[in-house]
Amino acid sequence: MWFVTDKDAPRLKIVKVDLAGKLPVFEDVIAERSEPLARAQIVGSRLVLSYLKDASSVAEMVSLQGRPLQRIHLNAIGTASGFSGKPDDPETFYSFSSFSQPGAIYRFDSSTGKSSLFAQAEAGFDPAAIHIEQRFYASKDGTSVPMFIVHRADLDLSKGAPTLLYAYGGFNVPQLQGYSATRMAWIQSGGVFVLANIRGGSEYGKAWHDAGRLLNKQNVFDDFIAAGEYLIGQGITTREKLAIEGRSNGGLLVGAVVNQRPDLFAAGHAAVGVMDMLRFDRFTAGRYWVDDYGYPNKQEDFRNLLGYSPYHNIKGGVVYPAMIVSTADTDDRVVPGHSFKYTAALQAAKAGPKPHIIRIETRAGHGSGKPTDKLIEEYSDIYAFLAKWTGLELKDDAAK
To answer: What mean pLDDT do residues 231-237 have?
Structure first.
């Protein structure tokens, strides 16, 4: 039998054990690598392995004894998933997508090592006309952090362009390339979309997660702030054209960095965010988040949480960027009270002349499974708001 394990291997490795032995002994088959192992599957008496390399998928095939056979050629730099199969069947399927390519399904024959397109969604635009670039920038403590920069290939960046910067930074969740019709509307309208792979996720394994949780949470905010400073310093955008966005734990991210650097951004969207870090564990699923945030009833954690809690650190009399907060009335993951309290406190603080508003969806939850019509209405409102305050002219047919 073959197993994926994190024993003495935080980025995961593969071991095997012969059950016929009197005292089964686990033997290493594939040692831990510098890239975290995302998935391993036995397909046609071969091991198909998928790794994350700088937040992009790479895949390869090895023998059951660990001997390298071949690298699996993916369509481009992006995100692949799947590779499920049976030991006696050489055929498997995997999905692939990127910022400019909607999801496609490929058939892979492990006996020949060849991939073939099985099904692909129509893009409605030329993917080659979209420029995707990965860069690395230095955070406050010198840590190198990757980011993806996406825009139309013909976009003039000489004066900086309206830019939407997105990140998550928590719960061991990697932020990978994937197609989004709403983001493509922003890009096709002449905006730049940037995904920053800040600490707190699993892009580089457990150590990357640990560096952005508990008492290290400030690293997450420093990484995001440094991303904005880098984009401005490189002339990709300006302070007057930079908007930020985050969802859930990413909503907390937006709220925290706006408090810490209100001068750096023109606008922000905090979606279904965790905004009261001193009471998050008292509502619904919040009690499960203590592994990432800490325990508010423990002194050291309390002081750390109080230091960055979005609700508790709003600065009165300071000019804030334009802010739109979004939530839903039946969100049972992050209760809407977080967003209500944060928005009310921001409005009461008289934080400058720009609007600080909230959008409350009815008959909806945290986001998963939201109907297409609600998504269209939601992002029409939100991106129109961000476009207004960054100078972007949205085009009606941009997402087609």
So the answer is: 98
